[in-house]
């Protein structure tokens, strides 16, 4: 029985972090003010300084300081949460859950991975009688391969689920289970003869399932259709039903391919999720929804119960929109050279949790259906026209909006009116002239539907919570090559910048409706791409001025030299402290620094350009799914912690050009400093390229020392050389 006196969850403020963060904030803030003072007074009193480089440096310092200021919101009050699932009410009293899984392209998202995600969701540790657990797959590729594969997955899942339940298996993703033999969880059973036999049997079934998938993939077209009617199918084979009457209850599994027409914009993942919201509304209509990307399998079957510890907490629940778990990845290498685990980001989520809730992060969250519908309190007296404007013209669907908590499972297969209605809800024009994507459901405005939907919910007064259990509840597949990482980051940053440049800018749209800290938290993400200006300036201007003997920073003998040194040390040491306190090594600090600069020089720049161009109607932004097919060569390099520089030249050329420019400036500059005896004035300007040169030593290796496939291609090296020589030449010839 539920014990009402004991809370279902608990949180505590991370006091040491809070104190360190605020101390850093205070000291670093004062140092920044001193820097501004130095810059302004030098500008006013010193007639000899060359204006252009000086002002460039100052402006970009201001931009970086602005982003730093915004980023302090997520440092303000970091908290961590704990749940007590043993205190949840008994199974019969748990609310039902719909799981939404999205896939878009069987060529980029191999079926085996997608099916494993589906199977792991079907096997969640949650009551599956009375349709407490329902899984919906959205297939945006509308591909026959996926439909056939789902049917096979369902057949295998029946055996798999009973195996998992019988032996209390923790890792319910079959591929992962058979890959990393689990010892701890089945210790009770591992010596039993029965277990050994059952395990052999299920492993054989899994191999058969895999063989079957291979055949399906080989024999079916994987073309992604952009022009097809909606297809919705409840997966179950009635033939087996009688035979299986003694077997366990299975969750419901529904395959949904929404209608696609070239003439209709499909709004990417947000569009797909909204179709699932509507379709599931007429079938299971669960009050809570778990959203998963097709490559994010359930690694801990208790995630639903963990989430319910918040959703069923009577104090939190009325305002709680979603419970966010971190995105963790199964395939991060030891060295994590591309910062694929997003350590830095999830730290921020703890901080945002302390000021109203984490940002929605696309996958691994349990969200309240009502929050997505924009109805905090159901008002019975709203008129139908108004409701149709909000939810579209399906009266059946509108009815479902008012019966969320009374799931009314309907037998889809025998009910042709229901089938028709669902087809209508999955049609590509249903959204048109309604509030879908604007005030209802996942929001369409940007390709980062997660960030923007969460932002809107927070703005409407909802809160969210972040829980990071020690055993990751979900594990995904991270990209493993530099190129993929940079492309993926650019995609996100374009989306964020789209918001930043629009009327939805958190600074405007959020004001009056959200707390200042929360606005800052959202604004940091929307504007962080602007840091590209700082990195470009820092990687070019001081170096060129060094060659010309122009000092941009205070001499070592000046008291302001201390200010600059302090700023550098304070930011680096703060980063080191965060890295160490989250259990990582100094190597992680270097990797994160390097990757942040790489992103700034490429993703941040391109995101700003693309979002600006879109703003002026010069381009159209689209959401291309990240490639999840593993290249063996790339995987090898990645595991060894060696950079794969075979990224698109568009990314590599800026990086290599800046590197060459810095190496050249450092050595020529050093000679010049020694000749002119200008060590005092030029110290900072020699230090900057030196730091870059050392930090980016892997680029030097890639261009000069390496001969393997992942080195920088000679073409990129030559183009970069030419570009840096031109810049150096121009800098030496022109006067400022
Ligand atoms: O038109 C589309 C495009 C994508 N997807 C699905 O969306 C998911 C995420 O796509 P992916 O290519 O893996 O994007 P990532 O860049 O890895 O995704 C991150 O960023 C997205 C945008 O912010 C979030 O939606 C994701 O949850 C988050 O993991 C995948 O399951 C896709 O199949 C669709 O269903 N329809
Ligand atoms: Mn992904």
Brief sketch in words of this structure:
UDP-alpha-D-glucose binds at residues 108-109, 140. The chain has helices spanning 15-45, 51-71, 73-76, 111-122, 144-166, 174-179, 193-219, 238-243, 268-283, 303-311, 343-353, 369-373, 384-391, 395-401, 416-425, 449-459, 482-500, 506-509, 516-527, 532-548, 559-581, 586-615, 632-640, 649-676, 679-695, 697-705, 714-733; strands spanning 9-13, 79-83, 97-103, 133-139, 231-234, 252-257, 288-293, 297-298, 320-324, 328-329, 365-368, 463-466, 474-476.
Keywords:
three-stranded mixed β-sheet; binds uridine-5'-diphosphate-glucose; alpha/beta; Spore Coat Polysaccharide Biosynthesis Protein SpsA, Chain A; glycosyltransferase activity; single chain; eight-stranded mixed β-sheet; 54% helix; Nucleotide-diphossugar_trans; cell wall biogenesis/degradation; 736 residues; binds manganese (II) ion; 27 helices
Structure notes:
Residues 242-246 have low confidence and may be disordered. This protein is of the alpha/beta class and 736 residues long. The protein folds into 2 domains: 13-76 and 510-733, no CATH class; 110-480, Alpha-Beta Complex (Spore Coat Polysaccharide Biosynthesis Protein SpsA, Chain A). The termini are far apart. Helix 1 packs antiparallel against helix 2 and helix 2 runs antiparallel to helix 20 (532-548). Strand 3, helix 4 (111-122) and strand 4 form a beta-alpha-beta unit. Helices cover 54% and strands 8% of the residues. The chain has an 8-stranded mixed sheet with strand order 5-6-4-3-7-11-9-12, sandwiched between helices. The protein has a 3-stranded mixed sheet with strand order 8-13-10. The chain has 27 helices and 13 strands. The structure holds uridine-5'-diphosphate-glucose and manganese (II) ion. GO terms for molecular function: glycosyltransferase activity. Its main location: membrane. The chain crosses the membrane at residues 20-39, 51-71, 524-544, 550-569, 650-670, 682-700, 712-734. This is Cellulose synthase-like protein G2.
